[in-house]
């Protein structure tokens, strides 16, 4: 553990080491004070400094003596306090001069003293943790300071540009103040700077380019500010850097690739990056890393194997990203790892055995992923309808309510819970603090003057993520009360009051409080604030999550004071719980009532048995399906949809109507009701239920269950809050917001991954047959999920030619399928290519014609590709806020996928790798032999059919705001139109080929 604790030595620890060296040197000088005294001018200067600071010194004693009023040895018992003047008495002539001043942790309430300029030999000034106000005096620009620490005060205004004149500075720490404005470029003049700490202020603007001059930097911390722009690529200039901290700084992603140049890094902390996302950065060359934190940085894709090149890695935090894939075993080889946080990602597959079998590492948190194992107990002995927890405290009774104890000390990231009804997960380690049980439970030893003070004497703390999992609850709506009282940060004229504890609160994975500050909300410390929330419980589980997002101070009143704090939790049902036991008397009455009319009931049953026999056989057939899904009664579905109220109708699918519903536990669902006039029957229903229930992937719409009661055949899906991709891109009712480029890229890659799963990774080989923008739904976070498996078929290799009707949508169908009925996985690849192109352009393939010379969007894209002007395709609503490289890559992949020849289209897994930049995108060139001559006369045919079928073509698409749960099928006339459109498109491509050499397209190796 000693090695683990060494990871978290921060600026404060570094400064202490330097000071100890200084003290050991100066102690010798202090012993030689008899050789001389301090000049009168410097004594006068110290008196001015005392007046400006509000400091009382004993001037009857020589400041350069060993008098207790002038010298306080550092003590482990009081590490925040220092009251020392150091003199150097080795000058010629026996004179002494003040060289160092330490006035730390004394609650001095004055201003920064301008009189320090009258101490010409002063090199070190430490005024950390006081109550000083104002700004940095202009006079300081003429000093020869090497060490300046004024953190944890009340200093305001802009960082003065004249600080850049103190070119002797090696260490500058101004964190935990209230400085505002941008970083002055003049700080780039401080070429001797080794440690620069600017965290926990209100700084704005971009990081100035002049900072590249600080080539001697070994430590830089700029967290908890309001900077703008991206993390600059010029960070590669700081090649001596050993510690870099950029948490909740306001800067946006992605993490620049130039970070790989910082080969001396031992600690890298980056968190809460918004804006453009990226793949996992290349960190292979950062082999000295002991601590790696890339938390909430909008990183997607797999965890790269480069981590294996960090043999000394002890702390790994990649939580709250979009990492996916199977958790590989290469982490197991990092034997020094003591903390692993992979919370809230998209990892799937089995949990590695080295974790399940009880790894010796201190903390491992894999919660909120898609692993196949679950840590929840299989059953509950009793159902709860209320729960009360005294967070961090002992069992307590308030009136008729008993609060359960929550006294476990230390961080407790548990994979398997040890309680039946509720459990806590507390992950992270306080920066700059040693591991101690007291760090995770706050305690106030003074008397609290508040109602029910026993709930607020102790509280649960967390450095990162604190989650309470409540299980065994009855389903329904609940009221959740969260009790807060700040008992660590004080409310007085002291540096203990300067801390800012800021965190977020989530209930059932929905953020209910953002940047929550207890002192601000309660209007002071030691004051209670109770927040009430409503929560819907389904599957008997309630999750209350507190999360530190990198904001606020981390060093006031001492290192490690930050993160979520919660005093108590109340959970109460909003409905009347059932009476326990039910009553024996009632059971006897019911039993008697059943026995007496039993004979009559048997006669009635026998009479009607033959009437319902055939219907029962049909229902039994459906119920016999191994669906692995929930079964709903028709009564439940009617209640959820308000008896299928027309106002709840949100679409008309290929099978029938689609309704929005709300289950009794508050879960919002989409209900697909098979139409009584539908020609599709039970087998199609069984086909869809069976396939969907067997498929689980982040980019597929989830099936909650079905209803097979009487003549009703219904499917119950998860409800997608943001409708369809078609609706958001170019529907009749445009979305209220514009999909930005990072979102579009994420959507495109997500669709590709969903299709790759269907075609290559799932146990069933599925061809969707109707991939289109309308069948891609978006959840609350705008993550894409493929819907509508009603027409999906198992891809039987011995029967790829479909002799039945063609199912699909005009404009998305692959030519070999639309013209000849030949169906392979490559048909979905073609459809995906069309959708990917629409995502870039923001327009529908079949409804967009820039002028009469173009048939469709794909036609226009081919012409622009031939002209080398692909960026003209990008949606003009994005303006310049997109990555040109990524846009061109996506367009080229789309064109590859729409190759007329199925064999020349990439597989979906290859498309994923190309879209993510993990594989090169081959140049899109097709051989002339793919096409035939003689399409000249078909343009007039297309125009005539198009004019005659404008309304018919429109009707092929479902309403833009409907959940897509059905498919379209093409009639003979529709196919006639499609053939004409396709032939004209081939004519366009043939014309392009006259200017190109005939080349063949070779797909790169899949590896």
From TrEMBL:
The keyword Transferase applies. Its main location: membrane. It catalyses: L-threonyl-[protein] + ATP = O-phospho-L-threonyl-[protein] + ADP + H(+); L-seryl-[protein] + ATP = O-phospho-L-seryl-[protein] + ADP + H(+). It comes from the Eukaryota. One of its GO terms (molecular function) is protein serine kinase activity. Residues 948-970 are annotated as: Disordered. Keywords: ATP-binding, Glycoprotein, Kinase, Leucine-rich repeat, Membrane, Nucleotide-binding, Oxidoreductase, Phosphoprotein, Receptor, Repeat, Serine/threonine-protein kinase, Signal, Transferase, Transmembrane, Transmembrane helix. Pfam families: LRR_1 (PF00560), LRR_14 (PF23598), Malectin (PF11721), PK_Tyr_Ser-Thr (PF07714). GO terms for cellular component: membrane. The keyword Flavoprotein does not apply. ATP binds at residue 672. The chain crosses the membrane at residues 6-23, 588-610. It is a single-pass type I membrane protein. Its EC number is 2.7.11.1. It is found in: Membrane. GO terms for biological process: regulation of innate immune response. This is non-specific serine/threonine protein kinase. It comes from Ricinus communis (Castor bean).
